[in-house]
Amino acid sequence: MRFKREHRLKIISFILAVTLWYFVVLGKPVEKDLEIPIILKNSNPNYLVEISPSEVLLKVEATRRILRNFPNNNLKLEIDISRYSSGVHQIRVPIENLNLPSDLKVKEIKPNLITLVIKRVGIKRIPVKPTYETEENFPKRFKLIIKPSYVTIKAPVEVLVTTYYIPTQPLDILKLKIKREIEADLVLPPGILSVYPKKVKIFYHE
């Protein structure tokens, strides 16, 4: 009978120890780093928007129980850019947009500011210019006909004013002389968002 009583006391002591450990460990505040992506809302298709960085690091403090139940996998920071005009903007990280639980304490935000660059986008028709793999052993006389000879590019306005032509992929003029006709890809210079059409036909004539 005495053995059973001691056995029961050991079980009760073990349960009390586990309960105490549970409240001490899970109730003690700990820190955790959360990587939160930045999502842009209400962007205008007539503008090119660049943001740096694309995510922020949030250091929070809470109990393990709270952090375990906190749905941080789908956490994202949304920024409405409809009220910003063209140019470069330094924006304070709107931490209030995250709707964090009241018992979750924010210890640090990295960075505190994000850079938002908004560029107006336009279109322009410009000529196509052939480029060559090498200019050695060129035929003495030849003529290239490019169809279409002009293409439409889309880019930020500041890029459009300094772009005067679109180059083709490097051409092998001797192979072109034999084939007489090829389809060539166009090479987009830095800053060009798109070109239409993406390919041109090139005809060789002597």
Could you give a short description of this structure?
With 206 residues, this protein is an alpha+beta fold. The chain is built from 4 helices and 13 strands. The chain folds into 2 domains: 83 residues, RNA Polymerase Alpha Subunit, Chain A, domain 2 (Beta Complex); 85 residues, RNA Polymerase Alpha Subunit, Chain A, domain 2 (Beta Complex), CATH 2.170.120.
Present the secondary structure layout.
Layout: H1 2-27, E1 29-41, E2 47-52, E3 55-63, H2 64-69, E4 77-80, E5 87-92, E6 105-110, E7 113-132, E8 143-147, E9 150-156, H3 157-160, E10 166-171, H4 173-179, E11 181-185, E12 194-196, E13 199-205
Parallel strand pairs: 1-4, 7-10
Antiparallel strand pairs: 1-3, 2-7, 3-6, 5-7, 7-9, 8-13, 9-12, 11-13
Oligomer: single chain
Order of helices and strands: HEEEHEEEEEEHEHEEE
C-alpha geometry: elongated
CATH topology name of the largest domain? RNA Polymerase Alpha Subunit, Chain A, domain 2
Q: How would you sum up the major sheet?
A: 6 strands, mixed
Query: CATH homologous superfamily name of the largest domain?
Result: YbbR-like domain
Radius of gyration: 32 Å
Low-pLDDT runs of 5+ residues are: none
